[in-house]
Amino acid sequence: MAAAGAAGLAVALTACGGSDDASSSSSTDSGSPGGGGADGGGSGGGEEAAAGAALAATADIPEGGGKVFADRKVVVTQPTAGEFKAFSATCTHQGCAVKSVADGVINCPCHNSNFSITDGSVQSGPATKPLPSVQIDVSDGSITLV
Question: Any idea where the Rieske domain is (predicted)?
Fold first, then answer.
């Protein structure tokens, strides 16, 4: 009985992204530097965003900024005009949802980790791993999850 309780606790800790060392997620790599394969911290990247689902019009993503799609657990950025990137919206520190994009960084309000809008890399901790890339398709003024 104690073993079952310990196993349940381990599952609960993993699901909450208990540390930077949680198992890696199944996010796909969009080919950007510092791309996928990094730990998503919370639920796996493959579970976070539905493939083939339109997210937004390109005009909805500000140049030099981005937009968090909390319901899809993805953040889309436009580091430079016409260049769009997407990342998991789950902070790699402890699995909190990132909430905003400002001043060239994606912000997590839980412990103030910040990530680059260009490649998801950590700009300030306590997070130590980048946000995993999420593959998107940009065509005809629309951004779609792949």
Answer: 53-145
Query: What is the CATH code of the structural domain delimited by 2-145?
Result: 2.102.10.10
pTM of this structure = 0.66
CB 135 within 8 A of CB 86: yes
In the chain, where are the structural domains located?
2-145
pLDDT tens, position by position, 104-126: 999 998 898 999 999 999 998 89
